[in-house]
Amino acid sequence: MMRFSKLFFILVIGFASCKTDDQDQVQEKLFSLLDSTQTGISFANNLEFDEKFNVYTYRNFYNGGGVAIGDINNDGLVDLYLTANQKKNRLYLNKGDFKFEDITETAGVGGEMGWSTGVSMADVNGDGWLDIYVCNSGDIEGDKKQNELFINNQDNTFTESAREYHLDDKGFSTHASFFDYDKDGDLDVYLLNNSYQAIGSFNLERNERGVRDSLGGDKLLRYNGKFFEDVSEEAGIYGSIIGFGLGVTIG
After folding, report:
1. What are phi and psi of 8, to 5 degrees?
2. What is this structure's pTM?
């Protein structure tokens, strides 16, 4: 019995450590790392901190940026938009064969705010062309936190129109998801915000969840054909100052 146990143990170890040539070939074909010199995508979200602005003064300092993938010029190739926290965002046009062209400057989509977070591509105005909605946040003094909406001009250029569509939210926005929640044929949006108040400053004896906050809470915005209107309260969406949203998915 003892000899049988030893033999069984040796066989198990042998099978567990074996790999066939076919398995190695399959694993090698799953993904290939492409160099930036080949793709043309040289984006890097580099952060610089000082005594006034760092992870201690802004808790979301290392949360990162966002990525949106979509065909902005309807040529059948998906393009890339990447947000940077402290630098200009970048839009890369897919030229085919894994080669991309940086058209940020000519497209006018670099962004003018202080700290970009999430980004979504969606046909916001229903004209058949993808637009770009950028969430902005950060512990930035002054009026530089408004979200930006870049409407597609159908010629590889965009026009910033967030105020016109009432999407220039001034909260600490993290991300936005567009979807037709009322099934009327156009896109509405769920806007995920992060509280601007320090966690340690809350009174733990008070229940703040049901108290709506204009800047700190999440929002559900319905498109009425001209602009987006806040329907959060009537829809039953919590929007209090204790919201610390980091991600949102529609299903």
Report:
1. -60, -40
2. 0.83
